[in-house]
Design goal:
By secondary structure, the protein is mostly helical. Helix content is 53%, strand content 0%.
């Protein structure tokens, strides 16, 4: 068997990239054949399959935040009124 030089062993990427015709991948060919007979339904880009439901509106989160603030104020007031030793 003849010994090949390093330049011949390595695949030349510039030569491959400069090819005029590039063959599509097997998956691309399979999808093209499938879609020729059965085109896919139009769908928005990255559509959410199940839209999120509202959990009761913004008043719930507002009530939770206000409740936490009131509890913090009461706790700080109680700590101030405690007699120190």
């Amino acid at each position: 068997m003849a010994e090949q030089g390093d330049g011949e062993k390595e695949f030349d990427l510039r030569w491959a990239d400069s090819a005029e015709h590039k063959e599509p991948s097997a998956r691309a060919r399979m999808l093209a054949a499938r879609w020729k007979e059965n085109p896919p339904d139009p769908a928005p880009f990255r559509a959410d399959p199940t839209p999120a439901r509202s959990r009761g509106g913004s008043w719930v989160s507002t009530a939770v935040v206000l409740g936490c603030v009131v509890a913090l104020i009461v706790l700080l007031g109680w700590a101030q009124m405690r007699p120190s030793h």
